[in-house]
Fold:
Amino acid sequence: MSEESAVVPALSYDDPRAAIAFLEAAFGFEVSLLVTDSEDRVGHAELVYGNGRIMLGEAGWADWAKSPKAAGGANTQSVHVAVTDIDAHCRRARAAGAEIIAEPADQFYGDRTYRARDPEGHVWNFAQRIREVSPAEMEAATGFRVTMKP
Structure:
């Protein structure tokens, strides 16, 4: 990996091996690190997409670490991933079995996005920048005040 990510989401899965296979097939992630025990169970994995990285492991390694599947589908966060061809990415995800919960659509802030749920219930947001939008344009589109750091 060429540059260390400053923020790295860590996700818990009931079946980390199945999750890894799914994330590779559906979303294009690649395993960069895999730590297994003597019974070949996944203790820790790191996957990369472009210059981003996620970590994942087996739910239950701590009493607070649960898959959404084990928490009634609840998510307390989602992962946001920038992609280069949003529509092709969505087709790939759908073909691999991702539940598309928001179809690709252009957003007021200049991205085209879609949202997907993986088999254990983690929600993933994917975005492609399609145009630059000024704060004034965003305010006109939404009625909200928009402040951006220069």
Q: What stands out?
A: The radius of gyration is 17 Å. Strands lie at 10-13, 30-36, 42-49, 52-58, 79-82, 99-106, 111-117, 123-129. The chain has a mean pLDDT of 93. The chain has two domains: 1-60, 78-145.
